[in-house]
């Protein structure tokens, strides 16, 4: 029945205003009721009239409705195609009823999950690690003394409502002084230069890009990541940490940030679901919640806390780590255990495994017994995206997460 209705809506675009949840039919009904009540109120005051004045009145009403419709189309045509408006309003209204989700992390893992979340809700807040010091981001950090912008740009593109924006922000210049920089990175740096404040620049970017949600830095301060390894050696900087390799005991930020954005704390307080990962354990996921006020807010939050475990280990960072090792590292740094852990348990094709073995990466081993001892719920399943890579499928992951709300 619904499929038949969808076909009818496609054939006659004007009927899309009849979609459920548009907040249009109710107001049209109120207007019609107002006209009816007005007619009933005036009826006793009017003498019996022949049919033709009533016909003229009906014609006048039709002209009024047609004129208002034509005026609205004229106004809307200056902004967009009028035929697209019902669909856009419907999508927005449906997504506004979605859950409030706060997702922590950075890199490819977080931005991919955001693309899945934006199809279900406009209530997503991404809190992004800002400690990357490699590539274009690292050069801009040194030049302007600001937090890392690369992962923020990826997340802004992922939540944007404009289909072409991701390609535009990811465009990388290949010559001159701008060689190696992306347009998105330079866009954020420009906003920072104009605003004179990184937090204000991020809020401006959120407004300009028309996001289905919001993207915020873990801290608007220019901090660096420092790791203490099991042998006691300390190494500063994400690139240096990965190169050094070995078992990490803990990571922390230097200098200790004093500031987080109030919008981030408010989002955590109001969240229906809190999600950590997927992403690099020590250089994306954990740094995204390390600032003291964020950790405190997460400890006090009433919403369920879910950790999404990576599919593969990462050389120099999580070599030999099991799913339980990942979970314990998160719990140790946060000071709160995730109530739910999402783990991919389906087989990965041999040709994909061979490709990753050549890079020193292996599937994250999973044993349900230690989780059971800790009283942690594990959501098992096939969360891999079909194709040549071992990466999470945003649709599968988001569907599993929203089942928890």
From TrEMBL:
<keyword id="KW-1133">Transmembrane helix</keyword>
<comment type="similarity">
    <text>Belongs to the gluconeogenesis factor family.</text>
</comment>
<dbReference type="InterPro" id="IPR002882">
    <property type="entry name" value="CofD"/>
</dbReference>
<protein>
    <recommendedName>
        <fullName>Putative gluconeogenesis factor</fullName>
    </recommendedName>
</protein>
<comment type="function">
    <text>Required for morphogenesis under gluconeogenic growth conditions.</text>
</comment>
<keyword id="KW-0472">Membrane</keyword>
<dbReference type="Pfam" id="PF01933">
    <property type="entry name" value="CofD"/>
</dbReference>
<dbReference type="InterPro" id="IPR010119">
    <property type="entry name" value="Gluconeogen_factor"/>
</dbReference>
<dbReference type="InterPro" id="IPR038136">
    <property type="entry name" value="CofD-like_dom_sf"/>
</dbReference>
<keyword id="KW-0963">Cytoplasm</keyword>
<feature type="transmembrane region" description="Helical">
    <location>
        <begin position="52"/>
        <end position="71"/>
    </location>
</feature>
<feature type="transmembrane region" description="Helical">
    <location>
        <begin position="27"/>
        <end position="46"/>
    </location>
</feature>
<keyword id="KW-0812">Transmembrane</keyword>
């Amino acid at each position: 029945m619904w499929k038949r209705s969808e076909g009818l809506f496609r054939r006659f675009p004007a009927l899309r205003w009849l979609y459920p949840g548009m907040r249009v039919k109710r107001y049209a009904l109120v207007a019609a009721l107002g006209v009816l009540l007005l007619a009933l109120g005036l009826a006793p005051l009017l003498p019996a009239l022949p049919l033709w004045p009533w016909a003229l009145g009906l014609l006048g009403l039709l002209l009024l409705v047609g004129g208002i419709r034509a005026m609205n189309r004229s106004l809307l045509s200056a902004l967009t195609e009028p035929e697209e408006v019902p669909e856009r309003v419907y999508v927005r209204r449906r997504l506004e009823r979605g859950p409030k989700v706060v997702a922590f992390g950075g890199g490819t893992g977080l931005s991919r999950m955001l693309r899945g979340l934006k199809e279900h809700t406009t209530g997503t807040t991404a809190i992004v690690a800002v400690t990357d010091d490699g590539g274009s981001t690292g050069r801009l950090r040194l030049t302007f003394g600001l937090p890392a912008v690369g992962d923020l740009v990826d997340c802004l593109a992922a939540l944007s409502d404009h289909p072409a924006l991701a390609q535009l922000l990811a465009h990388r210049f290949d010559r001159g002084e701008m060689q190696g920089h992306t347009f998105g990175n330079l866009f954020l740096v420009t906003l920072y230069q104009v605003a004179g404040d990184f937090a204000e620049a991020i809020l401006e970017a959120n407004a300009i890009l028309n996001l289905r949600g919001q993207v915020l830095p873990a801290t608007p301060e220019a901090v660096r990541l420092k790791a203490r390894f099991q042998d006691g050696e300390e190494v500063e900087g994400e690139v240096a940490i990965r190169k050094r390799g070995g078992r990490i005991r803990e990571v922390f930020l230097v200098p200790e940030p004093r500031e987080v954005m109030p919008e981030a704390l408010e989002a955590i307080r109001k969240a229906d679901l809190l999600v950590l990962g997927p992403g690099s354990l020590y250089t994306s996921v954990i740094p995204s919640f390390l600032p003291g006020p964020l950790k405190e807010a997460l400890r006090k939050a009433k919403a369920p806390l879910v950790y999404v475990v990576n599919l593969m280990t990462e050389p120099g960072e999580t070599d030999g780590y099991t799913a339980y090792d990942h979970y314990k590292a998160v719990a140790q740094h946060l000071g709160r255990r995730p109530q739910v852990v999402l783990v991919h348990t389906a087989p990965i094709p041999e040709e994909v495994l061979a490709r990753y073995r050549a890079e020193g990466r292996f599937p994250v081993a999973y044993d349900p017994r230690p989780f059971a001892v800790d009283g942690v719920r594990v959501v098992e399943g096939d969360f891999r995206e079909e194709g040549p890579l071992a990466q999470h499928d945003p649709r599968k992951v988001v569907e599993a997460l929203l089942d928890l709300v």
